[in-house]
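Lecture notes, part 5. Sequence design as translation. It can be helpful to think of inverse folding as translation between two languages: the language of shapes and the language of residues. The source text, in C-alpha cells, appears below.
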C-alpha cells in the first residue's frame, strides 16, 4: 500500500517536472521567436500576406531642337507576373507550359517559378499586347481567375534607328539609361515607380474586403535636345559616304556647333549603330564573325561600337591648330595679317639645333604675309610665331580656349586634351605644338576652339540639352547658354576669320567653297600616333563668314582610298557637300543670291505605309531622290516604309535625298 503510494507520488512528481520543463521550453521558444527571429518572421509574414506589384513609369520623350520630332519614346507594352501560392496545384503544370510557349521561355525555368512558395514571380517583361491577349484568352478558356497578373509597362523605342545613336544612347532591359543622353539624364527621364499592394490570406489568396492599395507611377520628364534632326541626317549621310569612299579604316566624325550659343546642332560618329538593337553587330565585318566570337571579345566590340569618338577620343589636329597660333600672335601684337614679305619660307626652320621641315620643303613658299602663310599652311611661319609668343603665354592661350580642361558637355565618356606639362616644354616641343602636332585634343574641343574665334573671341560651354519639360505639371525648365570666358578680342577674331575666308577662296581649302556663301576654313593633316603609317585628315569651316552661324569640323581617321589623306583633297570637298545642303536646310541666307544654284521647291509627299517600290516611285515623280536606311535586305522591294525624313508636308529643294526607314 505504501509502496504503491510512493510510486504514484513519483509519477506525479515526474509528470510535474515534464510539464514544467515543457512550459519553460515553450517560454524560451516564444522568447526566441519574439526577440531573435521577430523581424525576420515579420518580414516573411508581410511577404506572405501581401501581393505587391510595381508599376513602371513612362520614361520621358527625347525631342530634337524643334521640340516636335521624337528621337526616343516609350511604347506601351505589358509585364506578366504570377502569385505562385495563389495558383491551384492542378493548374500549375499546364500554366507553366502555356507561359513558356507564348513567351518563348524554358519550360523548366517557368515551372520552378510556378511551384515556388513565394508571393510573386516575374515571368516576362515588356512583351507585346498581342502575346498577352493570347494569354488572356487561354486563362478565360481554362477558367483561371487568380494568380496571374498582367500589368501595363513601357519599352524604349527609337523611331529613327541609327540616327544620332552616339548622342542619344540607349536603355537596358530595366529601362535604365546606359549611354549618351539616356544615361546622363537618367534621373530626369526615368520617373518614379508606382505600386499595387493587395492584402492576402495565409495561402496567398486575396481578402475580398480589403481591396487594393494603388500608388500611381510618376512619369519621367521630357527633354529637348539642341540636335536638329535635318542637320543630323545630312551630316550622317555625307559622313558615311566619306568614310566608305575614302576607305577610312577607323571611321570618322562630324560636329556642327552654333558658335553664338554653344549649341551642338549635329554630332555624328561613323560607324553608328541601331539604338533598337544596341547589342547586335553594326558592321558587315563584325556580322561575319559574330557567332564565333568569344563573349569577352563581343563585349570589347560593343564598347568600341558605342564609343562616341567625337568626345571620347583625342587626336593630333595638325594644321587646323595654326588658327590658335595665329590668334595668339595677333592678340599679342607680334604680327599683322597682310604685311608683305614679313616671313620667308626656305623649306624649314631650325629650332634648338633641330631642323623642322615645311610640308612643301621641296618647293619652299618663299616670302609670305601671315594671310599667305595660313593659306599655304606653311609650318615654319607658325613655328616662328610660337617661339615669339613664348611657352608661358602660349599655354595661357591654351587655357583661354578651354583646351586644358573638359568642355563639360552633358554626355558620358568625355575626354580632354593631352598636352605636355608646361614645365617640360622646351623650344622643340613648343615648335611642334605651334603647327598642331605631338599633342592631342578631342574633336569637340577643336570645334569649340574655332567657335570661339567665330564668336568674337568669346568661349561658350557646349549645350546638348535646351529644355526639360515636366509633363506632369507642365513646367518648362530652359537650360541657359553659358559664357565661360573671353579668349581673344573681337578685333583679332575678325582678322582670323578674314584669313580663314582666304584659305577657302584661294588656299588649301578651296575645295570647300559653296556657291552663294562666304565660307572660311582650315585644312589639317596629321599622323595618328608616331610612326604608325596612319593619318588623320580634317577640315574646320565657318559659315557664313559675314555672320558666323555654324562651325563644322570633319575628322576622318586613316583614309586609305585613292584620294590620299590630305585635308585639302579629302576633307574639304566633303565640307562643300555638307555645307551646300546644310546651310539651306537651316534656313541660313546666302551672301550672294545670284550665285546660288536655282532649284525647284517641292513638297515632301507622304510615303509611310507604302512599299519601298511605291515610295521610290512617288518620290521620283515629285523630283526627290531616296536613301534606304535599313538593315532589311535592300532587294526586298515589298518591305513597308515605317518612317521617312524629312517628314511629309515640308517644302524642300528638288533632288534632295529622302531617308526611308524600313
Amino acid at each position: 500500500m505504501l509502496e504503491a503510494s510512493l510510486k504514484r507520488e513519483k509519477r506525479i512528481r515526474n509528470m510535474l517536472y515534464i510539464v514544467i520543463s515543457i512550459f519553460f521550453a515553450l517560454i524560451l521558444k516564444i522568447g526566441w521567436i519574439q526577440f531573435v527571429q521577430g523581424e525576420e518572421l515579420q518580414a516573411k509574414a508581410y511577404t506572405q500576406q501581401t501581393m505587391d506589384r510595381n508599376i513602371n513609369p513612362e520614361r520621358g520623350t527625347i525631342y530634337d531642337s524643334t521640340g516636335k520630332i521624337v528621337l526616343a519614346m516609350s511604347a506601351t507594352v505589358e509585364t506578366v507576373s504570377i502569385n505562385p501560392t495563389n495558383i491551384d496545384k492542378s493548374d500549375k503544370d499546364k500554366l507553366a507550359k502555356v507561359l513558356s510557349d507564348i513567351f518563348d521561355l524554358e519550360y523548366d525555368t517557368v515551372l520552378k517559378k510556378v511551384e515556388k512558395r513565394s508571393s510573386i514571380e516575374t515571368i516576362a517583361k515588356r512583351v507585346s499586347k498581342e502575346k498577352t491577349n493570347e494569354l488572356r484568352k487561354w486563362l478565360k478558356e481554362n477558367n483561371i481567375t487568380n494568380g496571374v497578373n498582367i500589368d501595363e509597362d513601357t519599352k524604349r523605342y527609337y523611331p529613327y534607328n541609327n540616327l544620332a545613336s552616339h548622342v542619344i544612347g540607349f536603355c537596358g532591359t530595366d529601362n535604365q539609361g546606359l549611354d549618351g543622353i539616356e544615361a546622363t539624364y537618367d534621373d530626369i527621364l526615368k520617373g518614379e515607380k508606382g505600386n499595387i499592394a493587395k492584402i492576402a490570406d495565409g495561402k496567398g489568396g486575396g481578402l475580398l474586403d480589403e481591396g487594393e492599395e494603388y500608388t500611381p507611377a510618376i512619369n519621367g520628364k521630357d527633354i529637348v535636345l539642341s540636335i536638329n534632326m535635318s542637320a543630323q541626317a545630312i551630316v550622317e549621310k555625307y559622313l558615311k559616304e566619306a568614310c566608305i569612299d575614302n576607305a577610312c579604316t577607323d571611321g570618322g566624325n562630324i560636329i556642327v556647333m552654333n558658335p553664338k550659343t554653344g549649341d551642338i546642332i549635329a554630332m555624328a560618329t561613323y560607324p553608328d549603330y541601331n539604338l533598337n538593337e544596341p547589342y547586335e553587330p553594326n558592321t558587315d565585318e563584325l556580322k561575319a564573325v559574330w557567332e564565333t566570337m568569344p563573349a569577352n571579345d563581343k563585349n570589347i566590340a560593343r564598347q568600341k561600337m558605342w564609343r562616341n569618338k567625337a568626345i571620347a577620343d583625342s587626336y593630333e589636329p595638325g594644321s587646323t591648330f595654326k588658327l590658335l597660333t595665329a590668334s595668339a600672335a595677333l592678340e599679342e601684337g607680334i604680327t599683322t595679317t597682310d604685311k608683305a614679305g614679313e616671313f620667308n619660307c626656305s623649306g624649314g626652320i631650325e629650332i634648338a639645333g633641330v631642323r623642322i621641315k615645311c610640308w612643301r620643303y621641296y618647293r619652299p613658299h618663299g616670302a609670305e604675309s601671315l594671310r599667305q602663310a595660313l593659306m599655304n599652311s606653311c609650318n615654319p611661319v607658325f613655328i616662328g610665331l610660337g617661339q615669339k609668343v613664348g611657352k608661358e603665354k602660349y599655354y595661357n592661350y591654351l587655357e583661354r580656349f578651354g583646351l586644358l580642361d573638359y568642355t563639360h558637355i552633358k554626355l558620358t565618356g568625355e575626354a580632354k586634351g593631352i598636352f605636355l606639362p608646361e614645365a617640360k616644354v622646351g623650344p622643340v616641343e613648343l615648335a611642334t605644338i605651334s603647327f598642331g602636332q605631338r599633342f592631342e585634343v578631342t574633336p569637340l574641343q577643336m570645334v569649340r576652339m574655332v567657335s570661339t574665334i567665330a564668336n568674337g573671341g568669346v568661349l561658350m560651354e557646349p549645350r546638348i540639352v535646351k529644355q526639360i519639360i515636366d509633363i506632369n505639371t507642365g513646367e518648362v525648365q530652359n537650360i541657359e547658354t553659358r559664357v565661360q570666358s573671353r579668349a581673344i578680342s573681337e578685333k583679332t577674331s575678325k582678322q582670323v576669320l578674314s584669313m580663314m575666308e582666304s584659305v577657302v577662296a584661294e588656299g588649301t581649302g578651296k575645295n570647300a567653297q559653296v556657291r552663294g556663301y562666304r565660307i572660311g576654313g582650315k585644312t589639317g593633316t596629321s599622323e595618328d600616333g608616331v610612326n604608325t603609317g596612319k593619318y588623320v585628315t580634317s577640315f574646320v569651316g565657318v559659315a557664313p563668314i559675314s555672320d558666323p552661324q555654324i562651325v563644322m569640323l570633319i575628322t576622318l581617321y586613316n583614309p586609305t582610298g585613292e584620294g590620299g589623306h590630305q585635308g585639302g583633297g579629302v576633307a574639304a570637298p566633303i565640307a562643300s557637300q555638307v555645307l551646300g545642303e546644310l546651310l539651306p536646310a537651316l534656313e541660313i541666307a546666302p551672301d550672294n543670291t545670284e550665285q546660288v544654284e536655282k532649284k525647284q521647291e517641292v513638297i515632301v509627299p507622304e510615303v509611310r505605309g507604302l512599299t519601298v517600290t511605291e515610295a521610290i516611285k512617288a518620290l521620283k515623280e515629285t523630283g526627290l531622290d531616296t536613301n534606304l536606311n535599313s538593315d532589311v535586305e535592300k532587294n526586298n522591294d515589298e518591305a513597308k516604309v515605317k518612317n521617312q525624313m524629312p517628314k511629309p508636308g515640308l517644302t524642300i529643294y528638288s533632288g534632295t535625298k529622302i531617308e526611308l526607314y524600313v
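The translated text above is only one of many valid answers, since several sequences can fold into similar shapes. DSSP finds 21 helices and 26 strands in the chain.
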